[in-house]
Specification:
Layout: H1 3-26, E1 31-36, H2 47-61, E2 63-68, H3 76-79, E3 84-88, E4 91-92, H4 97-108, E5 112-116, E6 121-122, H5 127-133, E7 137-139, E8 144-150, E9 164-169, E10 173-174, E11 184-189, E12 209-214, E13 229-232, H6 244-258, H7 303-329
Parallel strand pairs: 1-2, 1-3, 3-5, 4-6, 5-13
Antiparallel strand pairs: 7-10, 8-9, 8-11, 11-12, 12-13
Helix pairs in contact: 1-7
This protein binds 2-acetamido-2-deoxy-beta-D-glucopyranose (7 copies).
The site of one 2-acetamido-2-deoxy-beta-D-glucopyranose (NAG) has 4 residues, from strand 8.
InterPro entries: Class_I_gatase-like, ThuA-like
Keywords: Signal
Protein name: ThuA-like domain-containing protein
């Protein structure tokens, strides 16, 4: 008998199990985002397509998406479970006063915000919402072919795009300049490539803002913890939501927003956010067209490495059990 070998091997096996348990419970949370698409004004018929496209993308970017058109969902209890709220083509007055207060509180507690397309055309009298998004919609000329200039290709929402990106979409104009609240504009409509009879307000600034991000969402109140904000004005058509490049643009903006470190997915001491352990089985970095150039913290893009690590640990553990069993037999 080799009692010392037996006890060493069982200790090693136990340690192997413990390290696997530690990795899976602490290091691999999934982000959780609430998609809100209630409309009080114009209703985009691409909302179902867009919602499904986001949900289909979820496993590749390690995000659980819930969707709702119920304004009653905007209370402290519900919002506190999310790492971001995503306003999708919301138009008109989409929240009641308690809902607006809950959203303000969520933003003060580090919650992240994502707005897409007509999200700039809602809550027009709620100034914190306008600042959190960056600028309100003014008008758009007819759906058009246009060239979008990538004016900042260092951001995860743009790094995969061609410098001149051809799209068929609505070229939004805004009533103010998102740069005035601290946004960094990453995409700009090339006004020479389409017809807009105007009158276009000079207040939106130059170059023409089309998508932008805010490191500190400007809707936060003084003393609050600012999360991140990302907005793209593109996304009108069903076809757009079936386009891999557009989806990579949106997914890059979403994953960037979650890396604010102000919600639970990347910060265990955060007040809001999700502590759901990821159970996605997709290899998130290789199958995804999302850029992996700026992973931070326990980034979703590390989950393939995580799976590999866990597998290796299981193999090592199994080997030690086998050796231990051999030792017991002899
Ligand atoms: C877009 O897709 C939805 C279904 O998801 C459909 O109801 C709608 O008619 C489509 N729009 C167009 C213009 O084809
Ligand atoms: C929050 O909203 C949900 C869904 O409408 C509801 O079930 C819940 O009771 C609300 N909680 C509070 C504290 O208002
Ligand atoms: C927003 O403000 C404008 C101008 O003050 C007013 O005409 C409009 O009724 C307000 N809308 C809402 C939904 O309160
Ligand atoms: C965009 O250009 C294509 C090719 O010239 C044309 O077929 C299509 O009708 C145009 N679409 C719009 C919305 O202008
Ligand atoms: C994590 O969240 C806590 C609580 O909101 C905050 O004080 C801290 O600064 C956050 N950490 C980082 C790295 O942002
Ligand atoms: C993953 O977790 C979610 C949320 O708890 C659940 O709805 C889903 O069925 C789970 N999927 C798998 C494959 O276990
Ligand atoms: C988030 O945390 C990671 C890991 O600690 C760090 O590299 C990154 O700079 C942080 N991001 C922000 C916005 O604080």
């Amino acid at each position: 008998m080799f009692p010392s070998l037996v006890s060493v091997s069982f200790t090693a096996a136990l340690l192997g199990f413990l390290s696997v348990a530690t990795v899976s419970s602490a290091d691999h949370l999934a982000g959780r985002i609430l998609i809100y698409s209630y409309t009080d004004g114009f209703r985009h018929d691409s909302i179902p397509t867009a919602t499904q496209a986001l949900k289909d993308k979820g496993p590749y970017i390690n995000v659980f998406f819930d969707s709702t058109e119920d304004k009653q969902m905007f209370n402290d209890t519900i919002l506190s479970q999310y790492d971001a709220v995503l306003f999708l083509d919301t138009t008109g007055q989409v929240l009641d006063a308690p809902g607006e207060a809950a959203l303000q509180k969520y933003l003060n507690l580090g919650g992240n915000f994502i707005g897409i397309h007509a999200a700039s055309a809602c809550e027009m009298n709620t100034s914190f919402y306008g600042k959190e998004l960056g600028a309100y919609f003014d008008y758009h000329p007819d759906l058009t072919n246009a060239t979008i200039n990538v004016i900042d290709n260092t951001h995860p929402s743009t790094s995969m795009l061609p410098a001149k990106w051809h799209v068929i979409d609505e070229m939004y104009n805004f009533v103010s300049d998102p740069r005035s609240v601290g946004a960094v504009v990453v995409l700009s409509a090339d006004e020479s490539t389409y017809v807009d009879l105007g009158p276009r307000s000079p207040k939106q600034g130059e170059p023409h803002p089309t998508a932008w991000y805010q490191e500190r969402g400007a809707g936060v109140q003084p003393g609050g913890t600012a999360g991140r904000s990302f907005y793209t004005s593109l996304g009108h058509l069903n076809e757009t939501w079936k386009d891999d490049l557009f989806m990579a643009h949106v997914a890059g903006g979403i994953t960037w927003a979650l890396q604010s470190n102000t919600t639970k997915v990347y910060n265990s001491s955060a007040v809001v956010g999700s502590s759901m352990v990821s159970n996605f089985t997709f290899p998130t970095s290789s199958a995804s067209s999302v850029p992996t150039s700026t992973p931070t913290g326990t980034s979703p893009s590390k989950s393939s490495a995580y799976t590999l690590l866990a597998t290796q640990q299981w193999l090592v553990t199994a080997c030690w059990i086998f050796i231990g069993a051999l030792a017991l037999r002899s």
